[in-house]
Amino acid sequence: MPKSNTDMKGEKECTFLHSVKAMITLIKNGNVVTSDNEFTADVLIEDEKIVAVGKALNVPADKVIDASGKYVFPGFIDQHTHFDALCNSGDLDTAPYETSKTAVLGGTTTIVDYAPQDPGKGLLDSIDYRINVRAKNKACVDFALHSLITEVNDRMFDEIKELPKIGVASIKAFMAYKGSRLHVDDGTLVKVMAESKKAGVTTFVHAENAEIIDMLQQDCVKAGNTAPKYHAVSRPPMVETEAARRAVYLAEQMGAPTFIVHISTKGARDAVAEAKAKKLPVYGETCTQYLTTTKEKLSNPDFNEAAKYVCSPALRDEDDLEAMWEGIKDGTLSAIVSDHCGIDLATLKQVGRDNFVNIPNGAPGVGDRVPMIWTKGVVSGKISKQRFVEVCSALPAKINGIYPRKGTIAVGSDADVVIYDPNCASVIRLEDNPNGIDYNIYEGTKISGKVDTVLLRGKVVAEGGKFVGRLGDGKFIPSKAFALCFEK
Ligand code: URP
Ligand code: ZN
Ligand code: ZN
After folding, report:
1. Is the CB of 47 within 6 Å of ligand 1?
2. Ligand 1 centroid – CA 317 distance (Å)
3. Rounded to the nearest 5 degrees, what angle is found at the Cα of 42, between the Cα atoms of 417 and 62?
4. CATH tag for 75-402 (out of 3.20.20.140, 3.20.80.10, 3.80.10.10, 3.40.50.150)
5. Which of 209, 261, 287, 341 to mutate to test the pocket of ligand 1 (most atoms within 8 A of CB)?
6. Tens-digit pLDDT profile for residues 422-446
7. What is the pTM of this model?
């Protein structure tokens, strides 16, 4: 029966003389799927929280949602997005927080967005700016933040220890992008690991060997090979695998909890697997695109068609795609993310029309991750429904210190719920889920089922596949330090 401090008429005890009416929502007869369970149940929501999960909760409610024949998932969490980020060319994304309704329509209720250090500012100011200016009254999904280094100085190192006090428990360092302000050298990386470890902050690493990429890019350009397909030629699997192995070794030496982002190669996956076998605090994620899309896309002779797929690491071959699925299935990799970047084709990608080196890296995908992984992973028999929920919701919540507030359907958790209708087919179309820019790399892909209804902290924000929320519905969710990667 409902466990709640609210009586069943929905009248909440209040310190005022009158009582305040709570909003009661009841989701009936859904097939509830969590990371370790699946059962038919009702979910009772009071205002923003889940207050009961059980059979036949016949409670008067302001809103009743019939979920018979549908799945009821915890809101999905995308722990790697760039809604308001500097891309590697230094330009601002063209799809900032106002466009995050695309996440909602794709079943994602929380993002962990990257907050890059703005020019001349510290880590803390840059985070405050994201929360109180850039995302305020604009985000349509809840958001936590990762810090992201773009300027190496004493202030930056000093501020790492302050991050948890403002609800941030992770920091990203780029081993890639030689010559750009994103790049950090190995000395910096080691020092970041040391400071972060002391503060309970997880070091997130973009693992690609910057020197080798730079040499290969120069060789390609000297030989007149400037088309988008040379993006993959200049970033072969070994540049990622070498950097991942180096990051693991440095993490081991420093004893620093480390998370390797957007893994795309079998070699980098193996580096994480070997680290886990040695009980090192090393974890990793992969992305939808490294599970579903090969580098053939970069060979399209039409610049626009190929440039859409320029992201880093580069897209790979089938063997690596299969290795990513194995890594997700066997537990080596802990999350599937989108690495969503709102870099448009009409302006930003054009900068590299004559030279692939200048094409800003990144592609959108926050709105497609859940339907794509459901279809290509669960329906095709590669992973179970529980593992799907685990890598797309529960583990991202744990890694980012927001579990069990987020990432599960349980009494006391935020009422972030996705009702998924498995009984229909759909096709990914930009016009059905606009992402704020002018392309979708999964356009035309056939999807099993569809995201039907989405609740964000109890509020219905998508209904019948249509966005019914508002700009500003999303709020900042502070992360707790010493999260999953610190657990022994
Ligand atoms: O190509 C990508 N992934 N661009 C976004 C920045 C990053 O490296 O995550
Ligand atoms: Zn990266
Ligand atoms: Zn990224």
Report:
1. no
2. 19
3. 75
4. 3.20.20.140
5. 341
6. 999 999 999 999 999 999 999 999 9
7. 0.96
